[in-house]
């Protein structure tokens, strides 16, 4: 399936030049012309540079600064099948006939696959789109339609000009869809489009988006700048969803229905309309700003919909997700696909969000949002680097608090954004107080790169809570300090409220006094403080950094905690620990116990799988099993090894239809787990698709097996080797 296109680009010349270099890839250039005010400019020739994805237009003379030019290019291309650029997405009509729609996915560098353009984030331009498509189909782009002319088999629609934006946010959809519509408080039109079969399943997304837009407009103090926002559900989509300005594309299962995850994704994409679309990264190095903010703002966005939503729990889950993934690359790094295109890394989301939360808690929530409003309004329709954010925060912070601190936010930030991984704070009880040191230990892995510019030391904001007191304090543990001593006879809990992106390991004596403290004064400690303590204990027990009895001690103290989530987690830890101990005794029953642990989740994901049958494997699956129970029973039975093999084969393919994480889950039903182990321990197996799973517990189990049990740990230089300064803080009692 092919298409024809034409583009006209108006530009002002800023420096002397005799050629125009645009991005273009896999397009046939039919004609190219250029016009200037004197009408004496011509394109001598055009060449295509495949490796750089450039279209180079050589001019007949040198053009001087200040001249205005207009370039016209006509071109042709094929609708792709690889979910990049302008591509075909397939489904079936209610009648059973095949349905073919066309949609775009441009981030990061695929706009050039559809149209020659300046395809980098900081080349912002306004776009006016005119689409010609089969009469009867729906044609959508970023803006509202102005005029449609029907001419037999084809209809041409002209849409309003967009605001100034980056090319990766341009979007087009042509296909057979219907919509439901709502309007926000101030009258902004929101529609959710889906194929006719599924149009009744869009209500939750529609309502969530209306409330989220109202909430964000008020919070940021900037209205959405165009006339409408459309969401479209498509079947074949590379990412979960894409925030194209005014035309947000979702994978079907992330917009149809009533899953909690749908609300989360809808809010994430809407947050991007400000963080990413209005204010964009200068280059891909700052992609973490886009994804970190969209993730961070999802927490507050959820409160617009559900007043009881716990932002703290959301942020803690992001910290956990980040810590599991935070190995290979720093936030401020760019990775490339095999074909040379930029990869959007998963660490940008969870670590970006967790780092932004530290910034929020350092400057204070009110100051933070005031700074965010300034940052957005000062940089709208423009591009930013990290420093723009830090100076917006510093300006508000220093004005509002008369803060005498000498802390530079950008200096603090650099060690967090330029180094991979995160610090571990060791807290040791001495007769005078508690001594903190920092160190980092990391698994040695095949893709591991050492980013040690800062010596793997961090400027760490230490939030701590003194026993018997309900509030917490903030002190700084700078990277050039040898140790930080907090002088007090009382017990202290470090990383109170889980504001910080680091973990804490105490000595045995401290764990004992913390356990006593939690039992004596349970109401003085917040849900987040207790959860943080448990999470650090659990992960460090599995890496054998702490003794299991410390884990049991604290979990036991919290087993009947007033917060259900803390109570449940403490009890799970107690059960899991018991299971681990038993496992040592009865190695042979290991598989059975793992299956038991997963049974609830497994049936849940199986139901989801049935409601969205996948392509080939899905068909096989449906043909062979009547129910989820039957499937699990079959997998447990060694005679049906064929199913396990099918699963493994499919997990090894490049098919990224998004169900791999579900199928990975199902593997735990298999009785003979040699195949599963084969995958888990195979260093070349790509877990990216599986990592899309939001199930932290699942990831933890994979991680334990994949890394902790099989790889050595690397010690990084201790504080003594690196630095020599000691700081003492006294607490008056
Ligand atoms: Zn995003």
TrEMBL record:
Keywords: Aminopeptidase, Hydrolase, Metal-binding, Metalloprotease, Protease, Zinc. Binds 1 zinc ion per subunit. GO terms for molecular function: aminopeptidase activity; metallopeptidase activity; zinc ion binding. SUPFAM superfamilies: Leukotriene A4 hydrolase N-terminal domain, Metalloproteases ('zincins'), catalytic domain. The record marks 349 as: Transition state stabilizer. The active site is at 269 (proton acceptor). Coiled coil: none annotated. InterPro entries: Aminopeptidase_N-like_N, Aminopeptidase_N-like_N_sf, M1_APN-typ, Peptidase_M1, Peptidase_M1_aminopeptidases, Peptidase_M1_dom, Peptidase_M4/M1_CTD_sf. GO terms for biological process: proteolysis. Residues 3-169 form the Aminopeptidase N-like N-terminal domain. Zn(2+) binds at residues 268, 272, 291. Its cofactor is Zn(2+). Residues 205-416 form the Peptidase M1 membrane alanine aminopeptidase domain. Its EC number is 3.4.11.-. Belongs to the peptidase M1 family. This is Aminopeptidase. It comes from Caenorhabditis briggsae.
């Amino acid at each position: 399936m092919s298409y024809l296109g034409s583009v006209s680009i108006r530009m002002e010349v800023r420096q002397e030049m005799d050629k125009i270099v645009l991005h273009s890839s896999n397009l046939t250039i039919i004609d190219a012309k250029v016009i200037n005010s004197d009408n004496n400019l011509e394109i001598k020739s055009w060449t295509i540079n495949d490796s750089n994805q450039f279209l180079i237009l050589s001019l007949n003379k040198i053009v001087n600064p200040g001249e205005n030019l207009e370039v016209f290019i006509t071109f042709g291309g094929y609708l792709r099948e690889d979910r990049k650029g302008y591509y075909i997405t397939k489904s079936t009509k209610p009648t059973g006939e095949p349905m073919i729609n066309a949609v775009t996915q441009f981030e990061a560098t695929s706009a050039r696959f559809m149209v020659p353009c300046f395809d980098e984030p900081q080349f912002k331009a306004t776009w006016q789109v005119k689409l010609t498509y089969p009469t009867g189909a729906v044609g959508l782009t970023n803006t509202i339609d102005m005029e449609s002319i029907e001419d037999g088999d084809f209809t041409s629609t002209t849409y309003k000009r967009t605001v100034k934006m980056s090319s990766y946010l341009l979007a087009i959809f042509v296909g057979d869809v219907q919509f439901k519509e709502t309007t926000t408080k101030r009258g902004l039109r929101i529609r959710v489009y889906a194929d006719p079969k599924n149009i009744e399943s869009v209500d939750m997304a529609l309502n969530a988006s209306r409330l989220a837009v109202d909430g964000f407009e008020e919070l940021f103090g900037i209205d959405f700048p165009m006339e409408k926002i459309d969401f479209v559900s498509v079947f074949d989509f590379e990412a979960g969803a894409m925030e194209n300005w005014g035309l947000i594309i979702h994978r079907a299962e992330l917009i149809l229905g009533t899953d909690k995850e749908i609300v989360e994704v809808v809010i994430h994409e809407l947050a991007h309309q400000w963080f990413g679309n209005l204010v964009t990264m200068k280059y891909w190095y700052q992609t973490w700003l886009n994804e970190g903010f969209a993730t961070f703002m999802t927490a507050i966005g959820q409160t617009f919909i559900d007043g009881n939503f716990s932002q703290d729990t959301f942020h803690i889950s992001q910290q956990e997700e980040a810590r599991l993934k935070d190995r290979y690359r720093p936030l401020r790094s760019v990775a490339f696909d095999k074909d040379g295109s930029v990869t959007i890394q998963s660490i940008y989301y969870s670590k970006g969000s967790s780092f932004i939360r530290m910034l929020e808690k350092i400057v204070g929530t009110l100051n933070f949002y005031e700074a965010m409003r300034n940052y957005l309004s000062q940089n709208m329709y423009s591009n930013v680097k990290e420093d723009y954010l830090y100076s917006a925060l510093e300006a508000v912070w220093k004005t509002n608090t008369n803060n005498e601190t000498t802390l530079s936010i950008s200096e603090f930030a650099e060690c967090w954004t330029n180094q991979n991984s995160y610090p571990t704070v060791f807290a040791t009880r001495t007769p005078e107080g508690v001594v903190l040191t920092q160190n980092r230990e990391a698994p040695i892995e095949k893709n591991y790169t050492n980013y040690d510019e800062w010596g793997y030391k961090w400027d760490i904001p230490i939030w701590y809570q003194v026993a018997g007191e309900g509030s917490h304090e903030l002190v700084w543990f700078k990277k050039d300090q040898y140790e930080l001593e907090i002088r007090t006879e009382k017990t202290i809990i470090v990383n109170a409220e889980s504001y910080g992106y680091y973990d804490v390991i105490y000595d045995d004596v401290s764990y004992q006094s913390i356990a006593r403290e939690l039992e004596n004064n349970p109401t003085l400690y917040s849900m987040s403080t207790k959860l943080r303590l448990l999470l650090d204990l659990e992960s460090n027990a599995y890496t054998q950094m702490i003794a299991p009895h410390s884990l049991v001690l604290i979990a036991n103290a919290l087993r009947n905690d007033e917060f259900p989530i803390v109570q449940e987690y403490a009890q799970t830890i107690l059960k899991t620990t018991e299971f681990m101990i038993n496992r040592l005794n009865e190695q042979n029953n290991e598989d059975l116990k793992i299956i038991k642990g997963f049974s609830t989740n497994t049936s849940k994901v199986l139901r989801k799988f049935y409601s969205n049958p996948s392509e080939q494997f899905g068909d096989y699956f449906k043909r062979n099993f009547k129910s989820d129970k039957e499937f699990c029973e079959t997998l447990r039975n060694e005679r049906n090894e064929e199913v396990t093999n099918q699963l493994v084969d499919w997990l090894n393919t490049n098919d990224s239809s998004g169900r791999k994480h579900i199928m990975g889950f199902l593997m735990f039903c298999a009785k003979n787990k040699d195949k599963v182990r084969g995958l888990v321990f195979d260093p070349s197996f790509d877990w990216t698709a599986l990592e899309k799973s939001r199930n932290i517990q699942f990831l933890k189990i994979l991680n334990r097996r994949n890394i902790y049990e099989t790889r050595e740990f690397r010690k990084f230089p201790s504080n003594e080797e690196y630095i020599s300064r000691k700081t003492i803080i006294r607490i008056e009692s």
